[in-house]
Write a structure and sequence with these properties.
4 helices; 33% strand; alpha+beta; six-stranded antiparallel beta sheet; 2 domains; 36% helix; 142 residues; elongated
Length: 142
């Protein structure tokens, strides 16, 4: 009677172990790239300018409460070439009272960023507000 030769369990599972190790490595590498890219966008001057203006906005504060925090998954692009550039970003925001998204458009000229569009959309009501039309920190005209 011929009985098959049994290999030790460790030898039978080597293929699975190698495959799972490679898959895990690929996932960790992909996650590192994603976090790196989001980190670059969040460190851009255009992002910082837009987030600061949005988080100080009375409209955003009324909708989300304080503190206002940015979500992880920013989308859009930032293009810089020396002293000029452009940015179009969508930034998720959340606070204790709700969440929303701020959309920004900015131009860099002569080394300085200027917001050309900044709109907040409340996630629960879907109402939009132009944050550049708010007079935050400027005296009202009499």
């Amino acid at each position: 009677m011929n009985t098959p030769i049994q290999r030790p369990t460790s030898q039978r599972n080597v293929g699975w172990i190698v495959g799972i190790t490679i898959a895990a490595g690929v996932l960790v590498f992909a996650a590192a790239i994603v976090f790196f890219v989001f980190g670059l966008i969040k460190s851009s001057d255009a992002y910082q300018l837009g987030f600061a203006k949005a988080s100080a906005s009375p409209t955003v504060i009324a909708a989300l409460g304080t503190p206002i925090e940015a979500g992880m998954f920013v989308s859009g692009s930032v293009k810089v070439s020396g002293p000029s550039g452009s940015a179009e970003l969508s930034i998720p925001l959340h606070g204790p009272s709700g969440s929303g998204r701020v959309y920004l458009r900015a131009q860099k000229s002569l080394g300085e960023w200027t917001l050309t569009g900044l709109v907040f959309e409340n996630e629960s009501t879907h109402q939009r507000a132009d944050l550049l039309k708010e007079n935050v920190g400027t005296p009202a005209s009499e």
